[in-house]
């Protein structure tokens, strides 16, 4: 004669089956309510073998000790859980593949950035070298001009001073009257 726990489990299984629960969901729900695994498996076995709607302690068949049916139910539950595990593993594998693709793309992008930076560095160094060459050329030209001025400037200054003195001599002084023009010579022609 089955125990009161098996009868309670049987009634709970019947109720959950009528609500459309799978064996896996029934086991989880009933374990959460405190039923033992053996009572749950035995109740599921009774519900699946019986087909009757109400069971009392007296009407529970002797097949409750049928371990073969319990093993089938356990295998069914294991199969359901295994399918869930496989589905989760597939999700993890898909995530891993997507992550690897993203990582490979990021590595390619980083390599492209490194190449662009290298090209930019080369370009900047080339421009700096050109600028340096222009500065050296300008410096040489400037020194050449400096040398030319060093040689020419004293003569130029001397010539300017000489011209200045001639101009001063030719300028009429204040208070001094201009000399009258002498009679022009017939041979002398002014331009």
Description:
This protein has helices spanning 4-18, 23-33, 37-50, 67-170. By secondary structure, the chain is mainly alpha-helical. It has a domain at 4-65. Helix 1 (4-18) crosses helix 3, helix 2 (23-33) crosses helix 3 (37-50) and helix 3 (37-50) crosses helix 4 (67-170). Mean pLDDT is 81; it is low at 52-60.
The general outline is rod-shaped
Overall average pLDDT: 81
Enumerate how many helices there are, as a single number: 4
Compute the number of strand runs: 0
Along the chain, the helix and strand elements come as: HHHH
Based on CA atoms alone, the radius of gyration comes out at 58 Å
Topology:
Elements: H1 4-18, H2 23-33, H3 37-50, H4 67-170
Helix pairs in contact: 1-3, 2-3, 3-4
Question: Which key terms come to mind for this protein?
Answer:
single chain, 191 residues, mainly alpha, 4 helices
Question: Brief description of this entry?
Answer:
This protein is an all-alpha fold and 191 residues long. The chain is built from 4 helices and no strands.
């Amino acid at each position: 004669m089955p125990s009161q726990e098996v009868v309670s489990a049987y009634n709970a299984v019947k109720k959950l089956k009528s609500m459309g629960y799978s064996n896996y969901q029934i086991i989880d729900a009933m374990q959460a309510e405190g039923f033992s695994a053996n009572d749950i498996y035995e109740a599921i076995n009774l519900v699946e073998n019986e087909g009757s709607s109400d069971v009392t302690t007296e009407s529970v068949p002797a097949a409750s000790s049928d371990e073969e049916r319990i093993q089938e139910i356990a295998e069914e539950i294991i199969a359901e859980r295994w399918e869930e595990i496989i589905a989760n593993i597939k999700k993890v594998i898909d995530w891993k593949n997507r992550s690897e693709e993203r990582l490979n793309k990021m590595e390619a992008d980083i390599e492209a950035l490194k190449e662009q930076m290298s090209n930019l560095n080369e370009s900047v160094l080339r421009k700096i070298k050109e600028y340096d060459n222009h500065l050296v050329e300008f410096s040489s030209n400037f020194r050449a001009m400096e040398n030319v001025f060093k040689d020419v400037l004293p003569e130029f200054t001397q010539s300017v001073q000489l011209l200045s003195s001639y101009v001063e001599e030719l300028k009429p002084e204040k208070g001094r009257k201009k000399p009258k023009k002498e009679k022009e010579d017939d041979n002398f022609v002014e331009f």
